[in-house]
Design goal:
188 residues; mainly alpha; globular
């Protein structure tokens, strides 16, 4: 175990940008309205477990079932695309009756621990010590938990018009991210 604060800081910032929980606030608020409740602790814990498990066995697991990283990323990009499309044009793809509470799908996966995050973890694994990556995952998940616990306050702060504007803008960003992820991984 080679714990280095510089590595932890670097990986934390990379994962923070990839997870982009602040950018996902409009999606989270929308999911909360559909489901009525976000299980922030459960979503955070499951996202953390998914990331840590994928860090250690992700490449082997995907190879074992015959899926390459690019195909995994393409599948995640399709889900992200659908969420973004729903935000921008207002069409319902994920119907309310399928949600009782929001914790695993689509919050923990693919919104928090999605294909982009998983692919990033596999890339970081080639450059940094696994335990420094785990520490960075924990730091990011604590921040995610804080954001999830405070979506009501964030919603009050932004108001309905502010949320609508941010929702459309971040929906467009999600669409662009999905298309970029799709484009990069189809070309591999």
């Amino acid at each position: 175990m080679n714990i280095q604060l510089k590595e932890i800081a670097s990986v934390t910032m990379t994962l923070f940008a990839t997870i982009d929980v602040l950018g996902a606030v409009p999606v989270i608020i929308d999911l909360q309205k559909k489901a009525g409740k976000i299980e922030s602790g459960k979503a955070s814990l499951i996202a953390m477990l998914l990331m840590v498990v994928f860090l250690f066995i992700g490449d082997h697991l995907l190879n074992m079932i015959g899926i390459d990283i690019a195909s995994f990323a393409v599948a995640g990009s399709v889900i992200i695309f659908l969420i973004g499309l729903e935000m921008v044009v207002g069409m319902k793809i994920f119907h309310e009756e399928t949600f009782h509470t929001v914790s695993i799908v689509p919050l923990a996966f693919p919104l928090i621990a999605g294909a982009g995050t998983m692919s990033t973890l596999l890339s970081l694994k080639t450059q940094f010590d696994n335990w420094n990556i785990v520490a960075a995952i924990v730091i990011n998940v604590v921040f995610v938990f804080i954001v999830l616990k405070n979506t009501y306050r964030i919603e009050l702060l932004l108001g309905s018009k502010g949320l609508a504007i941010i929702r459309k803008a971040f929906g467009l960003i999600l669409l662009a991210m999905a298309i970029k992820l799709l484009k990069v991984n189809i070309m591999l």
